[in-house]
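Support case: S-adenosylmethionine complex. Customer-provided input:
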Amino acid sequence: MRGIGLLRRLTGIPAPVPKRSKRSFDHALAQRFEWKNNRQVIEGTFAQLYSDVEANRAAGGIWHSASDQFFCGDENLFASFVERVRSRKCLEIGSGPYGFLLPATWIKDRTIIEPLANKYRQAQLDLIGKTFLTDDVRVYTTGAEVLIDDLVGNVDGAIICRNALDHCEDALAIIANMSKYAANGCYLLLWTDIWHLQGIDDDGHHNITRSIEVMDALLEGLGFEILKHGALIRDQTEFIEYGRLARRK
Ligand SMILES: C[S@@+](CC[C@H](N)C(=O)[O-])C[C@H]1O[C@@H](n2cnc3c(N)ncnc32)[C@H](O)[C@@H]1O
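Agent response - structure generated as follows:
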């Protein structure tokens, strides 16, 4: 290959126009895939989920619990988290139609970065006249690769990003932005597939890295202390996944 490239340069033979590889990532296409998929999720599950969340709230619940994929049963850590985030600013990146923050109305200051938020809201309203995307939630519909100045150093509760980074164009830029948003003591709940071991057979995802070590080094280098490894929730023959509960130093 190198020889052919050199020959072309020496002889002036024009290089062929490269075909777009089927495996290259097209974010606009990925977002069309995402919308198609999540519209079906909303149609199939939103009415029941909304009523379950309401019932849980009426019974004094907070929807989430220590048994989730981040806290893995650690009741003390979960209690400290709840205490911290209840009245502090929390941010979710790529929340999807429900995410972690949207059903958690007990968290008083909620912001999401979700390019499809307006579509999700409208689909929920069209279905049952209710939505999790209420006016008290601050919504940015830009990609999270874009730094939002108002958030820099201002997120002191938690940043949550679950099952979103491999759907975004530039996962590493988003992790860097998270470190800029997080104030000291801010929790980070991060989970993502980092590699699809059997290839990618849809338009919605792409690979980030095979290296869990480099993900840890990235978080630590950007000022997060890793407190806990998340539960493994995938078939390990199909995915390399990465889940961490961390805190900004
Ligand atoms: C699989 S869904 C999210 C699932 C959700 N976080 C959960 O835990 O249920 C991935 C989401 O990432 C969003 N997304 C894609 N690219 C993004 C970007 N550049 N910045 C922020 N969000 C993005 C998509 O619109 C989609 O709603």
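The pocket of S-adenosylmethionine is lined by residues 31, 34, 93-96, 98-99, 113-116, 143-145, 162-164, 167-169 (CB under 6 Å).

Case will auto-close in a few days if no follow-up is received.
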